[in-house]
Amino acid sequence: MPRPLRFLAAIATLLVAPLLQAAPDTQTGARIDEILAQRDKVQDISAVALSYDGQHLAWIVSHHEQTRLQLASPSGKDARTIAIPDGCGERDLRWAPRWNLLAVLTRCKVDPSNTKPIRGAIWLLDVQAGTPPRKLAEIDGYASGMQWSRDGKRIAFLYVPGATRLPEATASGNPRVGVIGEGDQQVERVAAIPADGGAPQVLTPQGLYVYEFHVSPVGNRIVFTAAPPPGDDNWWIARLYVQDARAGATPSMIVDPASASGPLHGLQIALPRWSPNAAQVYFIGGLMSDRGATGGDIYSVPASGGTPVDMTPGIKVTPSWFRFLAPRSLLVSQIASGHVQLAEYTITGPASARQTRLWFSAPGTIGDGREALAVSVSDDRRPPRLAYFQSSFGQPPEVHAGLLTTAPPPAVTSINAALEADWGKAQSVEWNDQGFHVQGWLLYPDHYDPHRHYPMLVYVHGGPSWVNLPSWNNPATAYSTFGYFVLLPNPRGSFGEGEAFAEGVRGDMGYGDLRDILAGVDAVEKAAPVDDHRLGMLGWSYGGFMSMFAPTQTGRFKAVVAGAGLSDWQSYYGENQIDKWMIPFFGASLYDDPQAYAKSSAINFIRRDHTPALIVVGERDEECPAPQSFEYWHALNDLGVPTTLVVYANQGHHIADPADQKDILRRSLAWFGKYLAAN
């Protein structure tokens, strides 16, 4: 089940969030207040854009619900704030090709009740003229992912006309009342507006929910991934389509993973990209847990249709983003053993692309997954310019920009320069298990003393197709601050070791990945003073499942926190609203192979579970519905195992309310403090 889908700052706030039964003591409570106050100072960067000639850099800074648009030189100097007059928040930026025109997408505050229409607008900023921003179009609904046509005459974007809810499975769902399945469907489509203004014109048909798209080099066609609505559920069966970039045109389906032969069969597709000559379409194909959590091999297919070809078979890394630098050259952002790398791949033939240069490894997380980098490629053979936002365990979010070289571009902003890490050091750790190479991150306790023994928490990421990467906003650091070792493993099923590794959980949910995790615990205990009698586990989404399942398989963990987890894959199949994700992982539907689901259900082994469990979930979670948490809590309560369940009103898979996020952190620290205390 999907990870937290915006990559780390939002849902990651909860990936380690546990619960408590009692309020922290006065000293602990005061320290928690200090931590929350420090984290409250972080200003996030939500978008970065670089002009076509590399001479202008723009970015969006967000703090709470306030945003500001910054415009500067490519070195970040002379930054100034550009005021957009509609009073809404800036969400997306795109520079026009060949002109110093910046399109800005704004979105007003979304009503949490999912009953009021979402509003926004697209604005145009002429940097050369220095004139005030000009509104091009009112947006009645949800818009995202702007792209310019090559001639600069149109701006295309994803559009949900009349949307009242964010088009994301992690968002709070609508109340499940009335006649189910017969409500109006909100369908995401490709739309466009003229660059001189006008109402949005929808290009793709009502019967296809579009997830990602790309405008052809000439601008006369679009390629997109889509499936019949509902959109939240059907991303896992999306197909690849090509269509003329005009309203009323008929799409042509060119790839269907369900019927494809070869390694793509039954997998997911993302990030479609035209080749420079528009003869081919490239995309990433792999076993993926969620829309936006992109990872796999790079594939190509003729734009007219044909057999998709895996261009990178057998690689031991996970490409997550790419773009063409030249007709035979790809710039690729990839995950390699818990690190983000920027590499260059050369297309050596119709069925092969190989890495020919590793430009650099970034010290942390870059971009937001879907738009990892802004790249400016000149026509005079000068090196490309890059821009992106980055953070790590040691550095808060900043904009980085510069020429593409073998060194990562420097930070060109000092937005969070006053912040200092108040947690222990982070170290990459590696081990082997059952023929797999496994990597993870180990956070040391703050004020670490090598002569003491410490408790350790194992923080399991969501997914399972996802990865723990260094990030300033990773809440695991809070536990380091309070004197815990924290192991953030990337077991089989994770990105970063190649597609075979990512597919290592197929038909084996909870077993192989738990063995990898336990082997990682053993490896850490050999190298660091960890008290094996004070181990805890926590996680959100798939990490919540693991926190429920692990205690039924081992007694090593003395306390767990299960955030938005699931306890019974069989009942879950009928309760969640995204059941299509399960078939690629289990091999068949529940109704065709119930035993595949039964063998990984914690509830079927619940009498083995004696571990105090804290359970937290959003009331309107569509991905991991609250009844799964109730079922686990009810079983433990009936068996006399200490347990607490907290359900957060009106919240979805992503707990969006800051007050609820803070409550979860407070509860978590008290819970682990109680059950992992030194004897």
- Strand composition percent: 35-45%
Low-confidence stretches: 2-23
> What order do the strands of the largest sheet run in, or round the barrel if closed?
28-29-31-30-32-33-34-35
Supply the number of helical segments: 12
By CATH reckoning, the class of the domain at 13-36 and 423-675 would read Alpha Beta
The CATH architecture of the domain at 13-36 and 423-675: 3-Layer(aba) Sandwich
Outline of this structure?
By secondary structure, this protein is α+β, with helices and mostly antiparallel strands.
How would you describe this structure in keywords?
679 residues, alpha+beta, Rossmann fold, eight-stranded mixed beta sheet, seven-stranded antiparallel beta sheet
What topology emerges from the helices and strands here?
Blueprint: H1 12-15, H2 26-39, E1 44-50, E2 57-63, E3 66-72, E4 80-82, E5 89-95, E6 101-107, E7 119-126, E8 134-148, E9 154-161, E10 189-194, E11 201-202, E12 209-215, E13 221-227, H3 231-234, E14 239-244, E15 252-255, E16 268-274, E17 280-286, E18 297-302, E19 309-310, E20 318-326, E21 329-336, E22 339-349, E23 352-362, E24 365-366, E25 374-376, E26 385-391, E27 398-403, E28 426-433, E29 436-443, E30 454-460, H4 476-481, E31 485-490, H5 499-502, H6 512-527, E32 530-540, H7 542-549, E33 557-563, H8 569-575, H9 582-586, H10 594-598, E34 613-618, H11 626-638, E35 643-648, H12 658-675
Parallel strand pairs: 30-31, 30-32, 32-33, 33-34, 34-35
Antiparallel strand pairs: 1-2, 2-3, 3-4, 5-6, 6-7, 7-8, 8-9, 9-10, 10-11, 12-13, 13-14, 14-15, 16-17, 17-18, 18-19, 20-21, 21-22, 22-23, 24-26, 25-26, 26-27, 28-29, 29-31
